[in-house]
Amino acid sequence: MKKLSIVILNHNTSKILKDCLKSLEKARNELDFDVIVSDNDSSDDSVDMVKNNFSLVNILQGPNISFSNGNNRARKYIKTKYVLFLNSDTIVHKNTLKECVNYLENHEDVGALTCKLILPDGTLDKDARRKFPTPWISFKRLFLRNSKEYWYEESDENKTHEVDAIQGAFFLTKKEILDKVGWFDEKYKFDGEDLDLCFQIKKVGYKIIYYPEASITHLKKATKNIFEGKLRKLQGVDSMEYFYKKNLWKNYPFFINYLVLIGIKLMKLIRSI
């Protein structure tokens, strides 16, 4: 019986999607898994490429309204215990799928996991592990230019440890947990979806783990070409505001909350200019 379903979003990234799927084909001897490509009305040859070269891959044709919607569309097709949300701009390394699934199987208290995301220059993708953007964390990051705490840079990138949040480029979890928390919140249009899902998973009592014993290559940003320019930046700020109001607002006094909102509005104004 298959243990894992892999969901990949795609929009006009035929070449890198093909490389990603090739890396997954090499991993089929590690464990049995399904692959679902959720395509966002691509105008290139993405759909034909998948159909002609990867007969074991299921393709869902769009449109996808957002990252959240594109991933959630795969929900009714998934029958496996584990679900991996994977970017098309990734190359999965040998034994990564097997080792990550084994880790979840052996740690019942873990709700989601990411591996080490390696950029093309060999460095760690810092977004692989992040803290939740509390007022103090956000203030230090935006105004004091101190981001080490936000990205766990004081923790060894080669050691497994618990984190607040992981990146949607490689997000492994369990279907029963996704069903419990309602999958991705589709009110997010761009950015913040993975952060929010981690928050919901931790809220129901599970840990989020950064597991660098396994790794992938992450080309980074190659999948975001649909949201280029000012619109993308403004949607990112809107996501910050929604995340804060949904998850953190009730934890702080009103004057802190309004200071945060003023900061967000100022950021949106600056980006719009």
Describe the fold and architecture.
There is one protein chain. The chain has a single domain (4-272), classed as Spore Coat Polysaccharide Biosynthesis Protein SpsA, Chain A. Helix content is 37%, strand content 22%. Strands 1, 2, 3, 4, 5, 6, 8, 10 and 11 form a nine-stranded mixed sheet that branches. The radius of gyration is 18 Å and the shape is globular. It contains nine helices and eleven strands. The mean pLDDT is 91. It has helices at residues 14-25, 46-53, 67-72, 96-106, 135-143, 175-181, 193-203, 230-248, 254-272, and strands at residues 4-10, 33-39, 57-61, 82-86, 90-92, 110-118, 129-130, 161-163, 165-166, 170-174, 207-218. The protein has 273 residues and is α/β, with parallel strands linked by helices.
Write the layout of secondary structure elements.
Layout: E1 4-10, H1 14-25, E2 33-39, H2 46-53, E3 57-61, H3 67-72, E4 82-86, E5 90-92, H4 96-106, E6 110-118, E7 129-130, H5 135-143, E8 161-163, E9 165-166, E10 170-174, H6 175-181, H7 193-203, E11 207-218, H8 230-248, H9 254-272
Parallel strand pairs: 1-2, 1-4, 2-3, 6-11
Antiparallel strand pairs: 4-10, 5-11, 6-10, 7-9, 8-11
Sum this structure up briefly.
The protein is α/β, with parallel strands linked by helices. 37% of the residues lie in helices and 22% in strands. The protein has helices at 14-25, 46-53, 67-72, 96-106, 135-143, 175-181, 193-203, 230-248, 254-272; strands at 4-10, 33-39, 57-61, 82-86, 90-92, 110-118, 129-130, 161-163, 165-166, 170-174, 207-218.
